[in-house]
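User: Continuing from earlier, I have the next pair ready.

Assistant: Great, send them over.

User: Here they are, in order.

Assistant: Folding the first of the pair now:
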Amino acid sequence: QVQPVESGGGTVQPGGSLRLSCTPSGRTFNDAAVSWFRQVPWKEREFVAGIKWSGETTEYADSVKGRFTISRDRAKNVVYLQMSSLRPEDTAVYYCAADSTYRRWSVSTERAQYGYWGQGTQVTVSS
């Protein structure tokens, strides 16, 4: 069982930066794609960014391309989401999720493919 644990959320002014981290409690998730999703109360949870198990492929939602960067350190068993040029509309609870499929060859953007979810961390962008 893999239980992702997020950290690094907080409040930041528009234009600022934050870095989220995701580590697994339990066994490693080095053989799984890991993605970040976000949710606000009035919307469905949406894909933000994902990285292949090997780290060689990444995917981003159009709304964050050029501003967010996902990376992973396999030696440390951690996935990061570096968020820059933050906007008020980035305010949400951010969830880390690990793919249920062993070494999927691509990065899925579909929530249903992710069987392991963290509890979420709040990111608030406000002046």
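And the other member of the pair:
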Amino acid sequence: QEQLEETGGGMVQAGDSLKLSCVGFRGPFNTNAVAWFHQAPGNEREFVAGSTRSGGKTYYATSVKGRFTISRDDAKSTIYLQMNDLKPEDTGVYYCAQKLAETSDSWYPGLVDEYDYWGQGTQVTVSS
């Protein structure tokens, strides 16, 4: 079910940075797990980064570790994805997601089927 809204995508050069935002969360935002996923053309949706809850644990895909940072602003019920040192393989549509049920910090946020709400995605294109 789509109800979230991503913004911040665009066309950039390799090595540039972008910051994505996602709004539209429902329910107890500070206890919900949230995440970012990436879908390259012709590929399945893949996990990028996730947060189990506010102040909880964050997880990253190996390909983005050290370059991307997920953060959340409880006051604004907004999450962000800061993307630095972008590479052409980062090209694709980026989706944010929300899981309504509470999770523990040991819960891995990387599975698409675990999420209840999604956005429509924002396009990121990185040229070499």
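Worth noting for the second one:
The mean pLDDT is 94. The CA atoms of residues 7 and 82 lie 12 Å apart.
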